[in-house]
Amino acid sequence: MTDVDPAEVEPTRRPRRRPARADLLALGAYVLLGIFVCLNYWGDVSGRVSSHLPTDHSWFEWLFAHGAYSVRHLENPLFTARQNAPDGVNMIANTSLLGVTLPLAPLTMLLGPQVMYALYLGGALAATAGTGYWMLSRHLVRSRAAAFVGGAFLGFAPGIIHHANGQPNFVSNFLLPLIVVRVLRLGEPGRWRRNGLVLGALVTYQIFINEEMLLLTALACLVVVLAYAVQRPRATRAAAGTFLAGLGVAGGLTLVLAAYPIWYQFNGPQSYRGLQGGVFHNWGEDLVAFVTFARDTWAGDPAVEKTIGLTEQNTWFGWPLVLLSLVALVLLVRRSLATRIVAVLIVVFSVAAIGPWVRFDGVETGVRGPWSYVPDDLPLVEMMMPTRLTLVVAAAVGVLLALTWDAAHRQGRPVADQPRVPAQRAGEPATSDDLAAPAPVAARRRWLRPVGYAAVALAVLPLFPRPLPAQQIDPPPHFITAGGWRPYVPAGRTLVPVPIPSNVHGLPTLRWSALTGQEFPVPGGYFIGPNELGEGVFGAPNRPTSSLIYFTMDRGAVPVLTDENRRQAIEDLRFWRASVVVLGAHPREAVLRELVTGLLGSPQRVDDVWVWDVRALVG
């Protein structure tokens, strides 16, 4: 893919150098915006979690602690027995963020997982915007302001901010612009080895950050390459051999570096195949969502969620941006190869994201969507949510914003500043790119520059993010943080917190493990593991005692206990290799203490918790 009009795809290759000061200002603005988005966490970083996804927030705090524990104890980071004891958790088969938590392990040991979570979240948003800015400014647009606007949208789009509520893996997209650039440079003559090696290294690293976003990026690159090939067949044929050679090098390096982790993901202990029932396939994007303002933007209204319903707000662009995008596509699509490719991306991935049934304003219309024809057990696709395909649309819109601003920037420029029109290729007409407009036309269109700037500003300003909402959470017991548990938990045994951590219950007790550096293992947890059929399910299979605890919590009263309940409790404690059961402050503390007392006998009050030393019971 080397035979490209410079004015269409890479107009930045010119003698003039971009001042480093502008780049630093852009990066500084992104960092400040990242801090602003996380502002509510910094008010009490040790006592606040996401209001929207508190359990996910706690899971990622636990992941930072896992990275630090793995480095400190030199353990295999692909697996842990510190959660879901004694079976453990296959970390590479879960959202583990190992590419981040392992390198940052020293900082986690120093600052703690709570501070590390908030610090990293803002940094990941800023880093993604920064690499997006680099991609745009070096390879697509001439205006630094255009690159800044596009980069800001790539890093802080409404869908990205929505995922920032407890899911930092979906805001950790800083490698994706680099991967896209490297894919598009595979066809450079004489550089296929270097480009392939760099691409393979980037892809391997991305596997340890977010495989789903890597898959989406691969699909987007496939569409881009095919769209380019259709429009530039001669250039594609000329570069095909070099491109494929570089792609082979990238694939070979990735296979060598990632073969064992990928094998471990699908064949290691606690691995699974697909999710039970393909539960994600119904999560398509509502058509009204595209023109709706996202909840966490200045123009957003949280009440709208109740109308549209099940959606991750991956689009939620608002009607001004949708209108601007349509107008920009109409005006630029005939003049710019890049815009035509962006248009293809938007159409293909918007349609694909609809899901199995078309929904309009929260109502299922009965019209079949594209995912109704996709088998639930299709490899690689089985874990995908259709709505997340619109994250590609969001990226394409970010690029379109940069192209639109850049086109406005060129209006009214003197002839000396205008790039020359590229020579016509044999057999292909020269493109009349808007960026290469001759001076007389540009002079007549000077009014378009302020109009273009204003249109982009009016479309994106309502999407300026609010600080992420945070809620206060009870601090862990002093018994836990001060190490009072240590005499009760010898090596090879577990601490059983009440309630037992799960995907629904036990959020505070999961944090006990994270905030103590995972020094004691716990049963249950928040993860995906196999059921008896090998299908992925959320959380550990409930044992009789954990089910009884959850039932009592939901009911608010202790059921009549039998000798069978007591026998099952002892059997479950043996399975968990428990040495102590601990109940701290909890809204259901009284009823839970009555339940556990009925099962195990009277507890001791130690520090600020109730303790049942069960070593004599379980042997």
Automatic annotation (TrEMBL):
Annotated spans, Disordered: 414-435
InterPro entries: DUF6311
Transmembrane segments: 24-43, 117-136, 145-164, 214-230, 242-263, 316-334, 341-360, 380-403
Domain of life: Bacteria
Key words, A-Z: Membrane, Transmembrane, Transmembrane helix
Record domain DUF6311: where: 63-362
One Pfam short name: DUF6311
Protein name per its UniProtKB record: DUF6311 domain-containing protein
Organism: Micromonospora parathelypteridis
